[in-house]
């Protein structure tokens, strides 16, 4: 046991493990905000009374959900940056960071959309009918009546999506983000192969520490905000 603790202490002193986790937390934070915005618009499209919008939203969700995240991340680098020469920042590392955020956003917005749509299904049909009865069109009815209740019913699935986003942020290595956890773990194993168990323990425990509070918080919020029928 003492040897493992000594190895872990040495690894922490040689590598910026906390800094790598901080990069993943930042990736998750920005992608979570952007995917929530995009996912909400997609959910509105999917429940829209306009058939073309419903078709577009459904196509996006089905296409993106069935595309591996690694493919999307690789596309952001090889197509968006290399071929189209679209740069999101002058700084080299910051550019790849933002490309990774966009890739994570595009992918997880589809799951956010379905989470919100599941919340919409918990809203009684009479709520939408009452909104129409008082003269509200689709967008005001969705903004004032449907979505506030839908978000309350979607807390748990949104929490699961956030957890998946946090873990999937390690795929940012495919977008050439070199200072996040998966890249650091690969480097640590390459130069410290005899300490592979200690390295695995460090990153496993790190993600457990990040994921469990999210699960507990979203479960608590889900129970607190649940609409009592």
From TrEMBL:
Membrane topology classification: Multi-pass membrane protein
Main location: membrane
InterPro entries tied to this protein: AA_ABC_transptr_permease_3TM, ArtM/GltK/GlnP/TcyL/YhdX-like, MetI-like, MetI-like_sf
UniProt subcellular location: Cell membrane
Pfam family, one: BPD_transp_1
MF terms in GO: transmembrane transporter activity
TM stretches of this protein: 20-45, 66-84, 96-113, 196-219
Keyword annotations: Amino-acid transport, Cell membrane, Membrane, Transmembrane, Transmembrane helix, Transport
Family: Belongs to the binding-protein-dependent transport system permease family. HisMQ subfamily.
PANTHER family, per the entry: AMINO-ACID ABC TRANSPORTER PERMEASE PROTEIN YHDX-RELATED, MEMBRANE COMPONENT OF AMINO ACID ABC TRANSPORTER
Descriptive protein name: Amino acid ABC transporter permease
């Amino acid at each position: 046991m003492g040897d493992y603790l000594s190895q872990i202490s040495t690894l922490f002193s040689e590598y910026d493990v906390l800094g790598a986790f901080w990069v993943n937390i930042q990736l998750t934070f920005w992608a979570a905000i952007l995917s929530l915005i995009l996912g909400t618009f997609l959910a509105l499209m999917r429940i829209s009374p306009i058939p073309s919008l419903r078709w577009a939203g459904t196509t996006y969700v089905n296409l993106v959900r069935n595309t591996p995240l690694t493919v999307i991340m690789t596309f952001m680098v090889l197509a968006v940056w290399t071929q189209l020469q679209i740069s999101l920042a002058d700084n080299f590392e910051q550019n790849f960071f933002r490309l990774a955020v966009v890739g994570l956003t595009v992918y997880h917005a589809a799951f956010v959309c379905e989470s919100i749509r599941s919340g919409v299904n918990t809203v009684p049909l009479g709520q939408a009918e009452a909104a129409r009865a008082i003269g509200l069109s689709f967008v005001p009815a969705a903004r004032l009546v449907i979505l506030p209740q839908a978000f309350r019913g979607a807390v748990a699935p949104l929490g699961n999506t956030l957890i998946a986003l946090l873990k999937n942020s390690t795929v940012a290595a495919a977008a050439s983000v070199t200072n996040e956890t998966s890249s650091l773990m690969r480097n640590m194993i390459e130069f410290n192969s005899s300490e592979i168990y200690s390295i695995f323990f460090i990153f496993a425990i790190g993600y457990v520490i990040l994921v469990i509070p999210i699960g507990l918080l979203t479960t608590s919020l889900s129970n607190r905000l649940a609409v009592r029928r």
